[in-house]
Fold these 4 entries.
Entry 1:
Amino acid sequence: MDYPVLSKISSPLDVKNLGEKELAKLCEEIRAKIMKTVSKNGGHLASNLGAVELTIALHRVFSSPKDAILFDVGHQCYAHKLLTGRFEKFDTLRVKDGLSGFMRPTESEHDPFVTGHSSNSISAAYGIYKAKKLLGQEGTAVAVIGDGALTGGMAYEGLNNAGASNSKFIVVLNDNKMSISKNVGALARTLTKMRNRSNYHTFKDKFSQFLLKIPFIGRKLNSIVYRIKEGFKNALYRSNLFSVLGYNYLGPVDGHDIEGIESILKIAKSYNRPSLVHIVTTKGKGYKFAESSPKNYHGVSPFDIDTGADNNKKLNFSSVAGNTLCDLAKTDGKICAITAAMTEGTGLENFAAEYKQRFFDVGIAEGHGVCFGAALASQGLKPYFAVYSSFLQRGFDQIIHDAAIGKFPLRLLVDRAGIVGEDGESHQGLFDVSYLTCIPEMTVFSPSSYKELEYRIKFTAENDGMFAIRYPRGCEKPCGDVGFTADFSVVDGKGKKAIVTYGRLFSEALEAKSETDINIVKLNKIYPLSNDLINTLKGFEEIYVFEETVKSGGIGEHLSALLLQNGFKGKFKICAVENEFIPQMDTTEALSICKLDAKGMVNEVNNG
């Protein structure tokens, strides 16, 4: 398909000069380009299709990069990328050395902040806004936050802080699922239209100025009129949280009416206090499959545009974890499942359907999820919190304070542990080993296969304690019939060299063994490390630890300290990620670059 309008957009300035017909054509072309690219590369579809008109209106009213526009979660920024000079590179979305699927300041001056995780846009935009004022710079900052991201606690911290100021600060709520404030009746609808016209606000400001000029009683009279007006408005609109927090609430407005969005954004710009603009959009707009089932087209693998079919859908670690919990819940009424707005992503859709009373979606609020789970456990239930490794980072304090100190048996299913591939730096699960193994009372497992994952979930259901079971994104690789019920297993080879590894990398070690016939020590329980393991490892002369995590704080460092304390004199080397962020690329390619695949293991053992 040709893109006669979109291909000519080299910067947001070009968008400002388009007429009504060209804007309609631009929307059509943006959606077509997004669908074509995501169907090939995978990515976030429904949220981006819904935000096209909103993004165009934002760039027509504001002037990026002078005005910072932050999209939250950043996965709704595809149209923004296409309007800010990245059309020619858009086919490289989410591939190695290509465009990120999120906002990245290193990629463009139009991406002012990293927004890979949710709920940070208001804090970041307000910080940028205040910095501009302190530095005497022109421009403002706008936070564009989705209703899903608004379930995260950090969003409310930012709202509270910015709402208490007298700043011309703007938050745009992209509401594509829930109703924030319910308008009642024909009168309310009429007043909404009136309130969203610029002449209404001009008259209101001039009338207020007139009252204030009346000697002696002007200020009091203005205050009385204001209270009457607010009381009348609240009775009709049911006062919402944003008004209470100090925001001038504008909306709701049709999120697919560019002219209407522009009008209300200009009104927000005219205020000398914080404004929240409520935009209502349709997730998946323009693609019938995504409109009818937006959850299924949130984050997608490559798919067929004509049929909507995902040809790559297979059994994976996430679905195995969810199915195992379902099986256990049939006979154990204490088992509960918790997710942080990732029911499908963590394989819990069947559990949610079959055990509604024991399933809890806490929203994008991982800290709350951990504390809530610990509280369930404190009352004798068996909660499993299924959460992506990179998102669990936001619940670190609660793991320590709310679960570990009280010794409440919370079970963590740490999905997407290790390298995740195309989502890039913000989503790599490379830090959970380091931050989980520093917590007292925590036991960590890292299964290599579906059978081992099933076994560990069942094991944790039958035993009390704080457990974390970490497993990778995607499908298993063949691991043979190596035992996994003990704390560790040994696959004997020749000589006095040994590879120590766990999780997905065990399959790579088995492949390496076919060339080197080296001993392999597979860690089933990766933490805490047992005395039997240390005694076994002391029998080798050379030890190579391979792990899919950052080196600092990893299992290799724990092992090296224990071996040193126990008199080990041989060669010891840790092969892990060198404390750096891994950019987006195919997982297989990333493992190769990090020298964590079979070839890297062979080279290290032979030449290390």
Entry 2:
Amino acid sequence: MKTLKKYRNYLLRVFDILIITVAYMVANVIVKNTLDLNHIPTINTIILAIIVYSLMLHIFKTYKNITRYENGKDYLIYVFACLLSYIIVVACRMFLGDYFAQIRVTSVAALIIVTFIISYRVLLRLLLNGYLKAEHHSNDSRKNVLIIGAGDATRILLGTLKNSMNDLYNVVGLIDDNTYKVNYAISGKKILGTRYDIPRMCKEHNVELILFAISNINSNDRKQMLNICQETGCKVRILPGTKDLIKSKNIMENFRDVEIEDLLGRDSIKLDNKLIGELIKEKVVLVTGGGGSIGSELCRQIIKFNPKTLVIVDNYENNLYDIEQELKFNYPKANIAAIVANVREKERLNEIFARYNPYLVFHAAAHKHVPLMETSPLEAIKNNVFGTYNVMACADEYKVKRCILISTDKAVNPTNIMGATKRLCEMIIQAKNKASETEYAAVRFGNVLGSNGSVIPLFKKQIAKGGPVTVTHKDITRFFMTIPEAVSLVLQAMSYAQGGEIFVLDMGEPVKIYDMAEKLIRLMGYEPNVDMPIKVTGLRPGEKLYEEILMNEEGLTETKHEKIHIAPPSDITMEMVEAKLMALKELLDENNNEDKDRIKTVMKELVPTYKDNKEVNQKRLEEINQK
């Protein structure tokens, strides 16, 4: 085989010369019913044809092709080279005279030459690929792959797998929901069935890897198909949307692991960009906590509306630097001010507000980690409550048009210090709205997938280390949405705000964390509690089994957007808020994080809906057991 590869070009040239010679002999017999090799014009025509055809095939670099990778485009070049050769030979014979019979011979010979030159190369390609395929079949390390999708992306993918990854992957077939395509083939790979045939095909063909190669698909169909895939126990990788494809990369490099958000099946958000743009364009916008998960996404989406200046404030310099560099790279003409500052420090905030005079403020800075705040409750009070009070006070003093607080579902009937502090923050903005020209509002939503401290990144790390995957309780549920989705709705809610509202985002249905863990494990190619254990560790301090979106006494009103609702303003006043803050200052003056019972007692007095998480969880368990 190595010897053949070394001398392949010489052998191809010899075969071509033989084909040209034999073609002219056969053509002479067909046209003249005789073959007289002593006839000088016949000999001259054959010699001329050999020279011209060989030269044209050489000029068009056909001998540099790798035979087993040749395709339709290459074969068209062969046709063109032979056609040009034929024209040159005919022209030469016409110039030499005695040409009529030889032209007929040349025409017949040309058809024979182009047919056989292409045919034997196709045959060689099939033989070589058959040989290599047989060789690969003996290699048990190849993974059997099922591809979902039968479009352009799949065609490109099959070419990539065949040409550069044939020793790694064996494509057993394709899946497509278009029933008219079933039993047809793309690049030699048969379309085996629709989504409902996936489990059977995976079992019959011992599939190890599923490549989801449909880039343009609605979220609900994607969810349903991926749910079927994860039930097979195969590892699943997914091609992102067309806009996310990196054209400079090999298509295989565009595939990513399936994320839980792919399985949520949440529809894309439709926004009134005109309304949002009118508020942001050519205005100074300030974002606190701009380096965090929500804050950084706020910055990414705000900058698309061309603010005059985007002021990003964060206490953590590394995250702040990252988002600043990202935005400067993507929007080199944008005016961005990245400022290291702590919202606890009122004087520092005064400096920033005085210098930039923001028109809009988004307050995302907060301590959000429930168990850590249970351990250090005074830090939650300092940062969340008094940090928010400082930002809202500056917004009032410097005549900010609109100020939006990023709140949480944990503020609803809170069972932990973090949730209670965020409920106090909501009270602050509702009270402040009554006493100020600035329009204050809050946007309340649940967990966001992929945020700092969220459960999904933790699960992935645990799976990568071989487990166990830890879940605090088998019945614990949470509301989830993606970070871009949440932030898009925050911007839309901002455009609706008139002051005093708590906007409540539609989070969809609650999701069991245990179920999420099982799905993620399956998507990574493992079987839950077989080769990847799930360990129930018990509820953490301050954690409750479920989250609520609204307090019991609140009622919802609709907005123009179906995913945004409004909880009406409360009756709380600034005098009431100031009294609560004075009580909290006494706690801070004592500076005793260890006296958690006293801190909780004070917080329960200030936030009437704050309840003990043990009582709430016990009641919830009783409800679950009754079902």
Entry 3:
Amino acid sequence: MNIQHILSEKIQHAMVLAGAKANVEALVRQSGKPQFGDYQANGIMGAAKKLGVNPREFAQKVLDQLQLADMAEKLEIAGPGFINIFLKPNWLAKQAQHALNAPKLGIQLPQTQTVVADYSSPNVAKEMHVGHLRSTIIGDGVVRALEFLGNNVIRANHVGDWGTQFGMLIAYLEKMENENATAMELSDLEAFYRAAKEHYDSDAQFAEKARGYVVKLQSGDEYCRTMWKKLVDITMQQNQQNYQRLNVTLTEKDVMGESLYNPMLPAIVEDLKAQGLAVEDEGAWVVYLDEFKNKDGDPMGVIVQKKDGGFLYTTTDIAAAKYRYETLKADRALVFSDTRQSQHMQQAWLITRKAGYVPDHFSLEHHNFGMMLGKDGKPFKTRSGGTVKLADLLDEAMERADKLISEKNPNLTPSEKAAVVEAVAIGAVKYSDLSKNRTTDYVFDWDNMLSFEGNTAPYMQYAYTRIRSIFSRAGIDEATLCGEIHLTEEKERNLALKLLQFEEAVTTVAKEGTPHVLCQYLYELAGLFSSFYEACPILNAEESIKQSRLQLANLTAKTLKQGLDLLGIKTVEKM
């Protein structure tokens, strides 16, 4: 149940009846402080200002029109014109009971959309490194939330599978095959790429052949396309292993590489010329944007075709946006890439709109993120200063988690331990990233991410198993619980209210691309359950109270498990 949405609609209606404009916003928010109620409507003053009336007097008019008798036990005007809303315990209990028994924890699915999510985007013939981690796991967390809410999500893994370097790579693959050295793992492809580059730089005959293969590949030559496809397949097979280890939902079917849009590029540039948007400048074709200024204050030029006839990433991103609207019939297109690409994306999409390739209602959203830093505050590198391979990072996470779990619980069976180690290792790496606001840089710290204290994956996973142990120790099957939920204590009420705010957190992630909101919600929920558990005896309580509190515990466990699953983080029944 999205209480915030329900209250916003009711207050909006009351504000209109009180004389506000129909398009005024209610701005209902969780108050965060019990003395100010559960929610606070603080859009009253803005509406009163537009009407030219006293805010407190207008707030009273809104209260007179407000129909909240079924939900609220108290409404009060506070400060210059806020309305504080205190919800009824009986109403909260009834909604919690519904959430426990209903599919998807009682979440009401909004009007659904078709959403294209562009994330991960590794490069062909290169191994995935930590630079791909944030896009991959942030994008996947948002995709999971969107699908949970019933949206049709199209994953687009915008793989770097096109460009002049492929002539060099094809020529070197041919050389390797002629020398019967074709058994390549992706770890070898790092060396393969370097060797190809060395041959290109030092062997004029090889370089000439490579340049010829670029032309042939781009003109559709069957041999070159076959060799190119081998490189793509080898790369993506290995990347898929990383996705599976990370519990990321991308598959081979989701690859939509740069090559997909290549046939569209000449026609797009010709159309930009015909519309007068692209003009010639020293042999290149450039779109000048008044909305962006260079250091001299002149309109910034964005090249869409180089003077040698080649296209740029901007042209590809224009084509991608056009394709996602026209061919994939999307309502929203999300791109997850780092903040340094923000201006590039804004310019590409501005050109897309100026050219009329997408309508105003088609939402183009760049969900940008900051850098992963080491403890020294510099970009995260190996000790020798090299790029950290993603597979190596995950291997180290497994080693550290194995040591941690061995010390914490040596009594686990080998199969139990293996499941816990994997869940904690991968969960820690992902949660450490997802729990930070994506727009900021964050410091990668093994000690913090593997701690059982604070807002970490191990803490959240342990919070879940702790609740499950209540049932297992007492030999109680949650399916046999009966009676109704009653909220007589403050800690019970606080827990129930937080449980009913799950939909608000998930909806925010889907709308704004902010998984950290869900992490913070789950962390607060775990803390409130801990307070409830300490203050409210469960197994020793009178039977009806025991049944009520067990149902609250069960709903908490379900919510934690579902929330972590939306983040792509596994739970275990025993730790």
Entry 4:
Amino acid sequence: MVDLATPLERIDGFQARFISKLKKLGIETVRDLLSHFPVRYEDFSRVYTIEELEPGQEITITAAVESIKSRNTWRRGLNLVEAELSDNTGTIRATWFNQPYIKNALQPGRIANFAGKVVISKKSGEIYLSNPTYELVSEHEHHETKHTARIVPVYSETRGLTSKGLRYLIQPLLKRLPEIPELFPVEMLESQNIPEVNSALQTIHFPETIEDAMSARRRFAFEDLFFLQLASALERMKLAERPALAVAESVELIKSLIAKLPFELTHSQKQSLWEILQDIEKPHPMNRILQGDVGSGKTVIAGLVAYATAERGAQTAFMAPTELLARQHYHTFNKLFSQYERGVALLTASEARISYGHGLESATTKTSLLREIASGKVHIVIGTHALIQKTVAFHSLALVIVDEQHRFGVRQRAALEHGKTLIPHFLSMSATPIPRTLSLTLFGDLDLSLITELPKNRKPIISRVVLPEERTNAYRFIRDEIAAGRQAFVICPRIEKPEESDSATSFIAREVKSVKEEHEKLSRNIFPDLKVSMLHGKMPAKEKASVMHAFQKNEINILVATSVIEVGIDIPNATIMMIEGSERFGLAQLYQFKGRVGRGEHQSYCMLFTDSSAATTRTRLKALVNAKNGFELAEQDLKLRGPGEFLGDAQTGMPDLAMKAIQNPDLVKHAREAVAALLKKDSTLKKHDAMRERLAVFRRDIHWE
């Protein structure tokens, strides 16, 4: 018996050559194959007579094969099959390239449906069918067609397995499959106006009309969004049942810390701070994401919350993705909160430091620092993934802050929670703005705080696209800025030039600017009188730290770097961000680069260098130039690229339909409401066995780390 879990290799009739091809598409079971939905449809439903045909039409005809021949053309290795087709209204020629087997399949006298596009010959002006799909039929018997005379599904393909091959496999499988239990109650199907699962599965692959196909797609998109929301909601409920240290809000402390800051908090900073403080007062774990533009002041909010936690006698672990960023956060905390006498430490793979306020800061050994952390004397520990090593034992960890990681991995979180009675509160920070619909879908188990303003008196960064003929003027402008005392970043897509090769890919790669060659060009030819240095990920940690320290002290005029400076680097005197090969970066990444300047009192500039003349490149870069803030840019990026490319399918593991449906706010809203209504009646899914089983499969297939 065949069911959804049946491996395809166990099904009679599935040839080994198909199995290997399907595996390349990630298809191994019946569920996988039937969930490989069409990417589009071709409407060959109307059957024409030959005399009705006109150039440009997509048609099906039923015709007899009058004659057929095969020959090799003057192009080496190219085979051409030509057939003369007829019905009772006329004749037409059909041609196929590199499909010699068709000569044997379509013998003279056979009747078949032929579906494809009618084209016109430039030489003779005659119309003919180019590479039509064919399907043998009988004049006297009705056949259910797969490839012609209907709405025809077109699938994502792989070498050696076409849409025709997939239709050949899927149609009989649908007939063999026993009835699938419906996951949703009848009232939900009716309220959402979606078809029942068995009908939808048949219709999405072999619809009668395009409207039916869209209805079926909506059903499965709703299903994917529903289970995304359901998994998040249950995770939220589960977290709410776990105990956490309630960090009582110390109003006087917070007021004191804010009063001593060298700037005034914006309204949205205050709002976000209040939301977080309200959360950590509760006896169950906070699970919140703090989003805001680059330079909007997320770190100071994290610092205020960390010191409020320290006042309670509890500890905070603040994790950053790079040593550079961890070190910068450590120095920022010591600078902003120097008057506060609580132990703040830095722990990375290469460094251990500790500070007790008022400038009492020094290097220490890791062994010594680990003892201080375990004893509870150090209240705030800032570091990289070094914080979650087995050697690190916190005395009373109450708060975990993770910077620039949308998802804190389950394994990493478990490492911090292991053996603890009380679960730490969790705050994720991100300067990569994500459209609200995406946030509600992807981060449904996280509460959302937004910082929507930049600090007061911050000047907008002037951005512009620099074409090849404008390069000399741009260099002149950079020199003038440096003469005025400012500094510049130059970003390149790669560290060094690849080795020579004859391949087209290698040729393209060699055209991409590298840090090492750009550093040599700028220091020798363009700015020989200036101090030009470079920074990239392959440099030793101490060397990177030394370069950044020199740049911070204005001992370096121009820093040529890779995306290693994408997050967290804070150099107020740097006013120019020059990006080579800007078309090679995503808009979100370009926006991160742009945010590395404009952090001081001086006017700043972002120069997007490109040699590309492609219209799509100009459109994308123009979106960056015109965007007023990161959230507006994220919306534009989502429209330009679609959610799959915006997020990266491989990183989210999300189903294709869900990825597309994310752009439908109404469908997301309906899915959230349906989940809320269901859990209100059955919070443990005891009455919904099929739904519970499907959720387990869904959780297994989706990876969010």
